[in-house]
Amino acid sequence: MWFKNLLVYRLAPDTRIKADDLEDKLKAHALQPCGSFDMESRGWVPPRSDDRYLHSLERQWLIMFSVNQKLLPGSVITQTAKERAARLAAKQEHPVGRKQMRDIRERVLEELIPKALSRRRTLGAWIDPLHQWLVIDTAADRKADALLESLIGADVEIEAKRLETQHSPSAAMTLWLSSGKAPALFTIDQDLELKASGETRAIVRYVNHPLEGREIREHIAGGKTATRLGMTWKNRVSFVLTEQLQVKRVVFLDILKDETQDQADGSDDGEEQFDIDFALMTGELAAMLADLIEALGGEKKSS
Question: What is the pTM of this model?
Fold first, then answer.
């Protein structure tokens, strides 16, 4: 349940979503099994085992978007189609034409789709209706877009825009590295990507490497800017910040996990543990995101 990546959206000021309405709309668009001839189905699933499609705790909401996808590699279709085309060519005593090959592939696809296994992928989204934030647990824009499209498809009246800050993440990260000074409450870790802006577009990556040395400053002086930087907030949450303001590889450190265990001691209730984890996760991420936005000069206001 702990989010591993964060794409952060600001909800429009006039967004007014009621919990009961959202629950009903998500339930009406629940995930269904793939049909016999469908390669994919999309819909909503309950975050917990209580059959509620909207999990609400302390004015924080959690929803889960899921995709069932048939696994049918193109190589299997191609191989099967080629085998049938070879048999047909031998039977008719001349090569298979383009139209015949296209028809063969279509028939193969129709036959194999119902037999294909399905894979389910689930994507969580945290909604803070009070402060009007939407945070999606993914590093891929296309997956976030699919979730948002499915919300709109469920008749949820929502308008969400990616978070923008006054200072670009790339400029801020480059400044922190060149000055050797991290913003308040943050420390710089040992993962970094630098990119040149010239024709070469040269990229330099450091993994588990100290970033305080002269070598880093020389790269920056030579025109490279930071595009990814590992950071830790208050010794509680570590992550990688990107130039697109994505927060990737989020790790809740042992001190925070210990707190959840302390609160859950003596309880075998999985749902209680879920609530404890969700409350701590949202509380920590809300505070961390607020400090990160401040470090980046504050939120850019819509014109």
Answer: 0.84
